[in-house]
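hey can u check if this looks right to u? its 288 residues, i copy pasted from the old doc so theres a chance i mangled smth
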Amino acid sequence: MFAMMPPAELHDHLAQLGLTQADAAVLLGVDPRTVRRWGEGSQEIPGPAEQALRAWLRLHHRALVWRPDGEAITTDDAEMIARHREHAIGLDALLERVEARGGPAAPWQVDLERCVATLGPLHVSFYKLRNGGFSPQSYRRSDGPADTRRDWPLIEDAYACIAREFAKNGSPPRTRFAFIGPSLDNGRLSLWDSTIMPPVVAVMSCRSLRKAFGLGNDASDDKCRLLATRNMALLTEVAETLFAKGRYSVNEDPVVIRVLNIGANHLQMVADRFSRSVLNMEAKWVSP
């Protein structure tokens, strides 16, 4: 049984996946009005649709292709789209099982050119799909007869290793933010982007900025805001990276907002490029 996915979570999934409600309707094999009712909360999202949405998002965060190729989403080939949907759900479930047992027991060697993964005498082959993903093909052993049931955990490990190699060659589409701010309130800096829905706010404390750059308490909160303003492009880069990995929370009171909490450890990603020149500036107030 699947718990009902709240409308806010549905909107969030679609936003991360870059899907309109019409796109989602095609990929889920339902009427666009049905997806609209899901989004309004007037109709429950059925288990299979929720399972597909969650699987797509997990594959997306793993930098794996989850949808048909670009043309397929506009075609009437419902059977082909359904096959892609089931493949994505199956691959996600396989990767979750491998991850739950601590990852592959042994490092399979993956050759993307020859479309084969090997582990000693074990060989697992796969197809490359038009959309940039892959699909299982066959399993054999060079040291005796293959027993798929007996060797299934090893075969799953092979496909987990293959998935990792495919992920290295691609990355999930990154949401580009157009932040305004930063605003300062009680030692906290906030960057807002209301051009996408639900809106996103990236929040960091002045304390985190001081800690990340060893500024000490002599750097006032106003100086921290100047520092953030001077380095908006780098802070946006950090926020986009965290967002692509799904590292945010959803606040639904009073409206739905996705919140990115940027800590001192996250700022280390761009620390070597941060400009601190504004710390030497003194604020000058000019009378009109």
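The longest helix spans residues 78-100.
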